[in-house]
Design brief:
This protein is of the alpha+beta class and 123 residues long. It has two helices and seven strands; from the N terminus they run ββββαββαβ. Helices cover 17% and strands 23% of the residues.
């Protein structure tokens, strides 16, 4: 069954998190999110704000700790933009992030070669 994706706020960038099948934290930017996550929009906003303020190193050009994906903002197609050598485990993340990430569990482990097409039931 395909997960329904929607933009929480069309026209605005939105970051959200998931956890993969091995328990690693995955960060998505710039596109739609699974529809069931939108009921928790305040929690996701709080997680994004916390990360921007407290963990800028997660998102800069240093060796990444996150599996990170970007969307073009229109289609529900995400492409990996970083591959961590030692991914950050969900169990090691701050509560503000873990609380939102636990809402979306990916059914497959995020591997080195994935391009993620969320509209084809990947989540």
């Amino acid at each position: 069954m395909t997960t329904i994706l929607r933009h929480p706020r069309p026209g605005f960038m939105w970051d959200w998190w998931a956890v993969d099948a091995q328990g690693f934290l995955v960060q998505f930017s710039g596109g739609p999110a699974p529809e069931h996550l939108l009921a928790h929009v305040d929690r996701v906003d709080a997680a994004a704000a916390w990360a921007e303020e407290n963990c800028p190193a997660w998102f800069n050009d240093a060796p990444p700790s996150l599996h990170a994906f970007n969307c073009n903002g229109e289609l529900p197609v995400y492409t990996r933009n970083s591959v961590p050598d030692s991914p950050l485990r969900l169990s090691d993340t701050p509560v503000a992030i873990a609380d939102a990430a636990a809402l979306v569990e990916l059914n497959k482990t995020v591997g080195d070669t994935w391009t993620v097409y969320l509209d084809q039931g990947w989540v």
